[in-house]
Amino acid sequence: MRDLVDVDWLAERLGEPGLIVLDASMAPPGTDEALPTEGIPGAVRFDIDGRFSRHDEADGLGPVGVHDALAPDDLERELRAIGIRDGDRVVAYDAAGMFSSARAWWMLRAAGIDAAVLDGGLPAWVAAGHPLIPVSDSTGRMGDVTVRWDASAFVDADTTASALAEGDAAVLDARSPARFRGAEPDPRPDVRAGHMPGARSLHYAALAPGGRLLPEAELAARLREAAGEQRVIASCGSGVTAAVVALAATLVGRDATVYDGSWAEWGRADSGRPITTGA
């Protein structure tokens, strides 16, 4: 299955055995937006704010506000709990069009699962005139998926710091330009404003205006402008929209990984990591 599919592709195949649709919607940080209770028919909730992220004190920010990946065994358990089976094909979407669905895709891809992102997400599905029904908590069947973890999908702060120091990778920050510059405060408490020294700004929305990814030629040009020919380490606020950069890189055949802790870890007031502000 391709890494990116459109509404027509999904509509033609919806209901096929082994094709699972996941609603990976989440509210942007610092907002109180309610998630839609209705979605694409047959969709199962993939709760990035809840069961599909690690929330522990080791993250440094307490139980809320970070989205570190689950350990492989924990991810396998949660995927089985919502009914994912070996051999399933999974399509992830979100209510914003292109915000958090790529994070679900990246996690599933790292787990060795055939997965794709729905370009345009729920807004594109609605605009095409397709129906909505309540999102489910599971597929209603017993899951048996085996996670085959690709450890190269994510890197930590030390690896990111080394890449910045050595210059052997381009660290691309998917947050808004204002947050990158430090012109806006971070929405999470006790997290400083600014960016990693040496990181480069590439707002995820610049790759997906209106919730749809740019054509591949334009994605390639944006990535080349931001990263040259270097491999990409994608970062953001907490590892969610960084996956949009990773998706764009994957689509154009570039090597990419995601800094899982992202700015929520690096920018923490007590992290000891250097920061800078400005363009």
Summary keywords:
Oxidized Rhodanese, domain 1; alpha/beta; 279 residues; five-stranded parallel β-sheet; 2 domains
What does this structure look like?
By secondary structure, the chain is α/β, with parallel strands linked by helices. It has 2 domains: 4-149, Oxidized Rhodanese, domain 1 (3-Layer(aba) Sandwich); 152-266, Rhodanese-like domain (Oxidized Rhodanese, domain 1). Helices cover 29% and strands 14% of the residues. The protein contains 10 helices and 12 strands. The protein has helices at residues 7-13, 72-81, 101-110, 121-127, 157-166, 177-181, 204-207, 216-227, 242-251, 262-266, and strands at residues 4-5, 19-23, 38-39, 44-45, 89-93, 114-118, 133-134, 154-155, 170-173, 200-201, 232-235, 256-259. The strands form 3 sheets. Strands 1-6-5-2-4 form a 5-stranded parallel β-sheet. The chain has a 5-stranded parallel β-sheet with strand order 8-12-11-9-10. Helix 9 (242-251) links the parallel strand 11 (232-235) and strand 12 (256-259). Helix 3 packs across helix 9 (242-251). The longest helix has 12 residues, at 216-227. The protein is globular and about 50 Å long. The relative contact order is 0.17. The model is unreliable at 58-65 (pLDDT under 50).
